[in-house]
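Anyone up for a design puzzle?
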């Protein structure tokens, strides 16, 4: 059977419209595979053994489930479909674990572990992050295989992890250990949000996520505010001042070592890439503000090509029951999201020098960790534009290429140990509420994502990998 590309796309659209995607996503969401709750460790395993392995084996994959190299974290599935070892190989990725259900926080009529359709939204935990995304890609692969008598003209390898929501613990070690088995020519996978719901997106990497704490410990206990206020150190004021030296009152970062090229203007090629990039500023998500962050940059430039700093949490005293006392300690949990190309080893030394220069030697910097390193496809790689062209043919939509997705993802493990170009094709959107109640994926985006990957899987057989 030799089905044309056009017929493949049309039949995939009919498959989606007949409810096949929604039916399959319903079954995946029903598995309570949260990696953040040990009570669901059996569900984490079951997602692989019951939902993934039988399906992948029907598609001709050889599957092995490995224990996580890091004790206490979820297993990792390696699936390989080898038509001929001499053929090129595509490696893809997904994660079947989710954050906690947060059952009691969902809106009336919605439940995290039951897929519910409301208009063009499919609600359920993992619908956007990441069950619904790797479902698009694997359903597309199954559709292409069925239409081509089980022949692709290349090999496919899949890594599906179950601890991404715990920082992808163990994944880097796993990829390094199995590098020879996972050797490939290109990485193509889906996670994260598009630039806007109606704009298919191709990213050549992801921003990194570096975290640290600021703290002051002045004494063992609180002291009376009337007797001691104004004459003894207030840790909360010191931590607050430290934060105010890092950014100005509109969120502009004041530490050059944290910025691309020490704060020099963005390269012309980067500005050209993002010049007409749309931004998702609709619905009930937060609103992008033109005067927040680095001045002179567009929303897209700030989101995809610049560094951001936030305070994840801060505390001093007992907020639930304030006392008339100078609190003994204060702390702030901080985060830097940084674009590829920065040297994270300079982040904390630069911060220490900066705080000391402002007379804040008493503020301690603790627990610095590059939680999810940045990663990027080598500049000049043809893959982003090739994938974008394929998706445009399949969907008839304008496709936006961006340098990196704004959130953190573990592409670095594949780039570092397999030396592959990284291509992310996200099927989420910025208001999908992953990591919170009412998570959902848009049917319009999922349908377009399915068609995009049907075209990609078909087009890859024509690529000259040499």
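Challenge accepted. My sequence:
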């Amino acid at each position: 059977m030799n089905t044309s590309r056009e017929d493949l796309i049309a039949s995939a659209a009919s498959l989606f419209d007949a409810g096949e995607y929604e039916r399959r996503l319903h079954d995946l969401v029903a598995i309570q595979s949260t990696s953040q709750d040990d009570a669901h460790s059996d569900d984490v395993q079951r997602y692989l053994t019951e939902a993934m392995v039988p399906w992948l084996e029907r598609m001709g994959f050889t599957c092995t489930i490995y224990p996580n190299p890091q004790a206490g974290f979820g297993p990792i599935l390696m699936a390989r479909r080898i038509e001929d070892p001499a053929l090129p190989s595509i490696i893809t990725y997904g994660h079947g674990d989710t954050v906690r259900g947060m059952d009691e926080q969902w809106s009336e009529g919605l439940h995290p572990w039951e897929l519910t359709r409301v208009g063009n939204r499919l609600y359920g935990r993992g619908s956007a992050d990441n069950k619904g995304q790797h479902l698009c890609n694997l359903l597309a692969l199954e559709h292409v295989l069925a239409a081509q008598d089980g022949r692709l003209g290349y090999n496919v390898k899949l890594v599906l992890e179950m601890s991404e929501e715990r920082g992808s613990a163990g994944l880097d070690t796993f990829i390094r250990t199995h590098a020879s088995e996972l050797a490939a020519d290109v990485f193509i996978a889906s996670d994260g949000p598009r630039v806007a719901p109606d704009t298919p997106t191709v990213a050549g990497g992801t921003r990194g996520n570096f975290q640290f704490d600021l703290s002051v410990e002045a004494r063992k206990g609180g002291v009376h505010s009337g007797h001691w206020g104004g004459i003894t150190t207030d840790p909360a004021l010191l931590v607050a001042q430290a934060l105010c030296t890092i950014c100005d009152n509109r969120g502009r970062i004041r530490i050059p070592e944290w910025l691309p090229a020490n704060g020099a203007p963005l390269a012309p090629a980067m500005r050209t890439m993002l010049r007409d990039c749309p931004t998702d500023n609709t619905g009930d998500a937060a609103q992008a503000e033109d005067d927040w962050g680095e001045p002179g940059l567009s929303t897209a430039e700030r989101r995809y090509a610049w560094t951001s700093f936030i305070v994840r949490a801060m505390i001093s005293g007992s907020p639930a029951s304030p006392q008339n006392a100078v609190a003994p300690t204060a702390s702030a949990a901080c985060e830097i999201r940084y674009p590829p190309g920065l040297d994270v080893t300079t982040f904390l030394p630069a911060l220490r020098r900066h705080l000391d220069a402002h007379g804040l030697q008493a503020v301690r910097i603790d627990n610095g960790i590059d939680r999810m390193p940045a990663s990027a496809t080598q500049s000049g790689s043809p893959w982003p534009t090739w994938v974008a062209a394929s998706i445009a043919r399949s969907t008839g939509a304008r496709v936006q290429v961006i340098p990196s997705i704004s959130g953190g993802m573990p592409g670095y493990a594949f780039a570092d140990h397999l030396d592959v170009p990284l291509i992310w094709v996200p099927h989420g959107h910025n208001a999908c509420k992953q990591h919170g109640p009412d998570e959902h994926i848009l049917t319009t985006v999922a349908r377009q994502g399915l068609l995009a990957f049907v075209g990609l899987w078909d087009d890859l057989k024509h690529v000259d990998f040499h």
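A detail worth pointing out: The chain has 14 helices and 19 strands.
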